[in-house]
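agent> Task received from the user: take the single chain below, predict its 3D structure, and emit structure tokens. No templates, no multimer pairing.
agent> Plan: (1) validate residues, (2) run structure prediction, (3) serialize to tokens, (4) report one or two observations.
agent> Step 1 OK, no nonstandard residues flagged.
tool_call: predict_structure(input=
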Amino acid sequence: MAGHFIVLEGIDGVGKTTQVALLAEWLGSLAVPHLMVREPGGTPVGEAIRELVLGRPELDVSPRSELLLLLAARAALVRDVVRPALAVGTCVVGDRFALSTLAYQAYGRGIDVDQVRSALDAATDGLQPDLYVLLDLPLVEALERRSAGGAAPDRIEREGEAFRVAVRDGYLALAESEPRVEVVSAAGSPAEVHRRVRGLIEARFPQTFVRLPADVR
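)
tool_result: status=success, residues=217
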């Protein structure tokens, strides 16, 4: 039986990585076979591209070059990691996938949306997640969280406010048009957000993720 492919998305600072880790703990408690992946990354090729795209702010990378590099990383991840895991019934949880490309490279960078969609289809061979969980926060709150974390901003995070506004607007527009996307408020503590995310997943896939009584959550 094929496993479920669930992806967490959102602008920088909403807490995706924290929520992916909490989902891993939850899936482990349910004895559900699972695999956590991040984008770009997850393979030797993907990690090398991650360092090039995010870790080299001195490089002048054009929007189209950035897009193609990210798609090369995704093609490797889908072929070498995601499809094999799904084929044996493993639940794959991703920290970003194709929705990020549409939000950042199409809406943020201004590349034609239809061109990005065509390129995405080629890179993923048509693979789509079963569910995108879009974690959302107002930009000011997301930026405050990101700054409080203390990590130096990567090359894309160094973009200005107009870029961040365009990306968040893009995400919300995609949530309106894409049936696989569900918006979840990222406000509150990590535990509060996790409960919202978990409740959504339980409701979407009740045969896989058994709902626990409220008093034992």
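agent> Step 4: summary for the user.
The chain has one domain: 5-210.
agent> Done.
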